């Protein structure tokens, strides 16, 4: 099915965000594992898997719309150097993905591509309800408990 070129372009921009998130979560999970923070490693590895699923869904939709998925482009990675900066960078990336999803949802509504819109609403729900919310919780715990107590809880 020939899709709207604006939608395909926007989906590729979202794909760049999801691929960057995948890469960032992957390296952060490996860093957590290296530091012995197994609870954080497990959760961030789960986020990596979620982002891989988001990327796969976008690729399938781009192909369905007769577009070409851009697997080369990534938005900028923000690799942290400590737990707090890693969580903050991951949260900032999720905010970026959420904003891009909202823009693309609006575009899909304008061009009446409601199937793509519904897919993106599902991805937005996962981004906000799971990823963003959890990251905000972790940063809140660090503020309330202190970094050392938080880190101890992640062993």
From TrEMBL:
Residue numbers binding Fe cation 2: 51, 94, 128, 131
UniProt keyword annotation of Oxidoreductase present: yes
Binding site for Fe cation 1: 18, 51, 54, 128
Enzyme's top EC category: oxidoreductase
PROSITE patterns listed in its UniProt record: BACTERIOFERRITIN (PS00549), FERRITIN_LIKE (PS50905)
Keyword hit for Cell division: no
Catalytic activity as recorded in UniProt: Fe(2+)(in) = Fe(2+)(out); 4 Fe(2+) + O2 + 4 H(+) = 4 Fe(3+) + 2 H2O
Sorted UniProt keywords: Heme, Ion transport, Iron, Iron storage, Iron transport, Metal-binding, Oxidoreductase, Transport
Database matches in PANTHER family: BACTERIOFERRITIN (PTHR30295:SF9)
Protein purpose: Iron-storage protein, whose ferroxidase center binds Fe(2+), oxidizes it using dioxygen to Fe(3+), and participates in the subsequent Fe(3+) oxide mineral core formation within the central cavity of the BFR protein shell.
Protein name as annotated: Bacterioferritin
Protein species of origin: Ferrimonas marina
Taxonomic path: Bacteria, Pseudomonadati, Pseudomonadota, Gammaproteobacteria, Alteromonadales
